[in-house]
Amino acid sequence: MSPRDTRRADRVAAAIREEVASHLAAGVRDPRITGLVTVTGVDLTSDLRRARVYVSVMTGEDDKSATGATLEALNDLGHQLKGQVGRALRLRLAPELEFRLDETVARASRIESLLAQIKSDDDRRDD
After folding, report:
1. Rounded to whole angstroms, how far apart are CA atoms 76 and 28?
2. What's the Cα-to-Cα distance from 4 to each of 9, 46, 100, rounded to whole Å?
3. What distance, in Å, lies between the first and last C-alpha atoms of the chain?
4. What does the DSSP 8-state code read for residue 104?
């Protein structure tokens, strides 16, 4: 794959991210989608046939079942979104959309809390 091909895939991935995010912001009517869903990134295969859409789901509580239900609903909506993305971006073949949970934010939060705990333990030892 030439460098030119990767630039096109990057541009299409960014456009898919924008299109999916705007569709979700417009309000999807599915009761399984709870909380705030943010599209954090899109990985696109080099042949542009599959797009892995990473989302962050913020619910009021730390509920894995609500997050799982939201992810399942998004994957069910993938076919509908595929058509909209294809039309909006004028793609001959719209990619299959697969939604995955982006756990980067959760990992960063966990690391920050562990570091804060270590710092407070060190502060107590110094006293």
Report:
1. 12
2. 9, 11, 27
3. 60
4. H
Type of residue at 100: R
* Separation in Å, CA 97 to CA 4, 14, 42, 45, 113: 23, 14, 9, 11, 34
pLDDT single digits (tens) 37-66: 889 999 998 888 999 999 988 776 666 777
Overall average pLDDT of the 81-110 stretch: 87
Q: How many CB atoms lie within 10 A of CB 2?
A: 7
- Give the residue-averaged pLDDT of 70-76: 88
Distance, in Å, from the CA atom of 60 to the CA atom of 38, rounded to the nearest integer, reads 15
**Sign, CA torsion 14/16/19/24:** negative
What does pTM read for this prediction?
Answer: 0.74
Give me the sheet containing 96-101, strands edge to edge: 36-44, 50-58, 96-101
Q: How many CB atoms lie under 10 A from the CB of residue 118? A: 10
CB of 13 closer than 8 Å to CB of 42: yes
